[in-house]
Amino acid sequence: MKWPPEAEECEECGFHWSTPVSEAIDLVVTTTARYPPPAELAAPRSARAEGTWSPTQYLWHVVDVLRFGMERLWALELAPGSLVPSWDENELAAFRRYEDLSAEVGARALAESVAAWRPVAEAAPEQTKIEHPEYGTLSAADIIRRNSHDVVHHLRDIELQLS
After folding, report:
1. Where are the alpha helices (DSSP H) in the chain?
2. Domain definitions of the chain by residue range
3. What is the pLDDT of residue 5?
4. Is 9 helix (H, G, I), strand (E, B) or coil?
5. CA nearest 157: which of 80, 23, 62?
6. Which residues contact 39 (CB under 8 A, 6 or more apart)?
7. Angstrom distances, CA of residue 34 to CA of 30, 31, 107, 122, 161
8. Residue 90 CA to chain centroid, in angstroms?
9. Separation of alpha carbons 38 and 102, rounded Å
10. Is pTM, for the whole model, over 0.70?
11. d(CA 12, CA 30)
12. CA distance 47 to 129
């Protein structure tokens, strides 16, 4: 995804890129509470479309998004102006073997990640920036909105598979 996005909202999930930071934080906190229970995430499914993950794999991806997001928010405070690395979500999924990870553990990891991410997001310095090799200069608002978008967007991905 290009940063900043060219469209005002995500065409797939409807996330608005101008969402106020406080609302973006609330979206992370409230949306994750709406993620399906582990038994529903792990239930056998029919064949998925090429290039999509299972509901449990999306859950683990969101856990990683929030963990990396928290590290990027820390960088704003502890290493402003620093370069944060890019990461390939598919390579990480393969390395971590998302397909073998438990939905029950993923649900716990998500709850813990949200609990840890929230105060870091709320305390992130607004004026400092970090550099990303693909997206350029990022502020706390940029990082928080990107994290919020991923949480909302992947809940939609999960719901589409469960419907």
Report:
1. 21-33, 38-42, 55-78, 89-96, 103-123, 140-162
2. 21-38+52-162
3. 77
4. strand
5. 62
6. 103
7. 7, 5, 11, 21, 15
8. 14
9. 8
10. yes
11. 20
12. 42
User: Burial of 163 by CB count in 10 Å (0-12 exposed, 13-18 middle, 19+ buried)?
Assistant: exposed
Q: Collapsing DSSP states into helix, strand and coil, what is residue 87?
A: coil
CA 134 from centre of chain:
17
131 backbone dihedrals φ, ψ, rounded to 5°: -110, 135
Tell the residue number behind the tokens 């909105």, with chain if given. 145
Rg from Cα positions in the chain: 16
Residue pointed to by tokens 């390395």: 95
Q: For 65, what's the count of Cα atoms within 13 Å in the CB-facing half-sphere?
A: 23
Q: Tens digits of per-residue pLDDT, 79-120?
A: 998 999 999 999 999 999 999 999 999 999 999 999 999 999
Token pair, residue 94, equals 């393969």
For helices 103-123 and 55-78, give the axis angle rounded to 10 degrees: 30
Instruction: State which fold the 21-38+52-162 domain adopts.
Output: Four Helix Bundle (Hemerythrin (Met), subunit A) (1.20.120)
